[in-house]
Amino acid sequence: MRLLLIEDDKDLVSSLKRALEKEDYAVDYVSDGIVADRLLRTEKFDLIVLDLSLPRRSGLEILRRFRSRGNQTPILILSAHTELDDRIEGLDLGADDYLNKPFELSELEARLRALLRRSQGNSAPVTKLGKLEYDSNSRRIFISNQELTLPRRELCLFEILLNKQDRVVSKESIMDQLYNLDEIVGLNAVEIYIHRLRKKLANTGINIRTVRGLGYLLEYSD
To answer: Do the beta carbons of residue 139 and residue 127 sit within 8 Å?
Structure first.
């Protein structure tokens, strides 16, 4: 999943980026309010973590502008502002969640998982498809009660396709969610991961169908 971290505390950015990338988020970050606002006009993200106190443009103003453009990407506010009025204003402007600093990393990660599930129309952490069971909290896959362990990129690809089950996902969209802006890879990398994942899901009733010219579709049949 592609995540944008908008935060000007360099130490916090460094620790959060490292931790979130271990959870397989493709993390981009900016520390300037105007730069963040411009980036959000051109790039798509699955989640946004937004600080309120930013140079040149406040987090609340970024949030107001973002929602005014009709974008519904989930936003979690991180802030040292503990006053009730600040929280109310952020939520009224369209934030989906609010976490005060300092915070526990495990709580942030849990809140991000919950936001992702809600944005994808699935509030339950466990998804079952025939023999396969996927727990989005632990990010573990079981087939007939036997755990299937996937390498990091293949697991991310599986999650992307599962979250869009029965809908076509383009190569470009997959690339955007697998990699951040600093990573340069070719579209053929997606084909390699698709091929590997297909083999590992064989005989489960789950098929990844190539829709020529459009992308890939995860289907399940009994």
So the answer is: no
